[in-house]
Amino acid sequence: MGTRTRLVLLFGGRSAEHDVSCVSARHVAGAADKDRFETVALGITREGQWRLAELPDPLPDRLDADGLAVAPAEIFAEPDTVVFPLIHGPMGEDGTIQGLLEVADVPYVGSGVLASALCMDKSVAKLVCAQHGLPQCRYRTASASDLSEAVAEQAIAELGLPLFVKPANMGSSVGVSRAATELETVKALETAAQYDETLIIEEAVTGQEIEVSVLGNRDPKASVPGEIVPGADFYDYADKYLTDSAELLVPAQISEAATQDVQRLAIAAYRALRCEGMARADFLYEADGRGMLLSEVNTIPGFTPISMYPKLWEASGLPYPQLIETLVDLANERYERRRQHRRTDRDEA
What we know:
Elements: E1 5-12, H1 18-31, E2 37-44, E3 50-53, E4 68-69, H2 72-76, E5 81-85, H3 96-104, H4 113-120, H5 122-131, E6 139-143, H6 149-159, E7 163-167, E8 177-179, H7 182-192, E9 198-203, E10 208-216, E11 221-222, E12 226-229, H8 237-241, E13 247-249, H9 256-272, E14 277-286, E15 291-298, H10 308-315, H11 320-339, H12 345-348
Parallel strand pairs: 1-2, 1-5
Antiparallel strand pairs: 2-3, 3-4, 6-9, 7-8, 7-9, 10-11, 10-12, 10-14, 12-13, 14-15
Helix pairs in contact: 6-7
């Protein structure tokens, strides 16, 4: 057996999605091939402290971002290391951690700084996708510092009721509300404003919720699409991680033509937003209307047992352990490719 890759699972973080990250990290740790990987769990506490977490046998339901205080540079400097960021939301999925890993000069799983930042900020991502001609639902933005009844009135006049309000920089449906009246719209804006300065207001689309997992660097592939039948008014945080009440249909109950269309659009969005490694593209499908409408692209999708990203690849013939191996291979491939362009004046001499 050759030298094992040192796989550093970076999890926890200071965002509202801390708990989700701890669950994702536990399941990646449990599925990683022990013959190929030496797994290291590096947690970030809610207060921003870096801790070397324990990996007991058997593993608990979730990892704890607690343990021996460490300097991340020391962890990243070890040879044959690849970092797997599993920090969802701000200060993890938004390019900040990716920038740290670039400076540390260590291979890491997933998208780089630009794509991570773009996809995290839904308002900017929508602008980029619109520039590339990708179909999306109607929306408008608002500022958390300038909320008034007039904002709600204008949104309703333009988008109708019901509508959805969400923070621009958040995932896992945190801070997302469905509003059916003007009063509910005002309250939804106030809720979203607790999480971000920029808010997204979207029309409510009556249709199927379709998700596609995308995998790859320069030649990305799309999984079979899946469909979500929410247990609540929409696919909220509780549905995703707590109650397991949503029904996940794999493959999605759509036609072959719609399947090919959503796979094509998922790859187009992935490329437009400069994604690499992995991402999950979410759509709303109006079968008798506008067809597939891109909702958002997530660069660090959930890796819990009920998460769509690994489920869709398993249904596409790529089991969870092999998915992890593929992601690590893609991280190394991109790192080696990008090294060719990182020339310094000393290299020129």
